[in-house]
């Protein structure tokens, strides 16, 4: 048997994470059995529990991020001279069905994220995964750090490089720096020599962000945060904004923060839906939507993280699979700075 956390249907739109016992999976052709060592949370898990996410599937195992070791290979896979062997420490691609198309998944009908969806997730002691979706974890990372890398690290990689095309010397703003994805975006953009500024609801988080390469930041709860930000840059507007808040922030970004022809790379709406006004075309702004990334980008991200020695920022660590419901509440309260990780 294996312990796992599934999505239990609740009342109305509020659902529950429930710890259950399931039979241990047996690897099918081309799969490997992975013994999960640590898992990490994403804001997506909260949207699912709140009934605000597409393709929610009840009784599906939750969770998109994990690090583990290969404990068994299917007979077909073991004899196919594949690159993996028993004992390898691996990261799991958090989605299935998107190989390499830079524009988006090759076929949306076959694209799915792991966890709380038709594809079983990773909040479990054992998962059986297609070997093509398994990658050796960067050696410089601890298990706790590695668990926090896949979904957020991939989303930030595509947002910063594929969509944002961030380069040395550019002014880049990353909003909501306490967030898991945002902290990767800061580290990636700083690693290639961009001038990175941040926003947060918490001055202490802005100070901590400076340890990861931020030049400064402002509190987005202040009504005139955009004007305060431009004071910090000496009036220089931004080339790229990496944003997951949307809502009222978006118009401040388009109206004041971005320079003429700048790019707003948008991957979420934590603060509410996007409200588009004509100003965006008057200022020649490019709005570039992005979501997660392909398997090819996942490999590129792992190589980039390894080359630059980037370490995921882990805010809080819980111990034991039965602590996952508490950890989810902690994420919901937004007390964290970086990833919330649970060791199994
Ligand atoms: N499209 C995709 O593929 C994709 C992938 C991953 C995540 N997302 C989305 O991106 C968002 C962040 O995900 P995550 O996992 O990084 O979440 P997270 O770790 O829970 O972080 C959320 C952060 O949002 C910030 N925030 C809240 N209200 C804000 C506002 N009004 N203005 C600016 N920032 C605000 C907070 O930053 P402070 O604590 O600094 O105030 C908070 O820490 C979520 O909406 C998620 O659904 C999308």
TrEMBL record:
Q: What highest taxon heads this organism's lineage?
A: Eukaryota
Molecular function in Gene Ontology: oxidoreductase activity
Which Pfam family is an annotated match for this chain, by its short name?
A: ADH_zinc_N
Q: Which Gene3D superfamilies match?
A: Medium-chain alcohol dehydrogenases, catalytic domain, NAD(P)-binding Rossmann-like Domain
SUPFAM superfamilies given for it?
GroES-like (SSF50129), NAD(P)-binding Rossmann-fold domains (SSF51735)
- Where does the UniProt annotation place the signal sequence? none
Give all residue intervals belonging to the Enoyl reductase (ER) domain: 12-342
Q: What is this protein called?
A: Enoyl reductase (ER) domain-containing protein
Say which species the protein is native to.
Actinomortierella ambigua
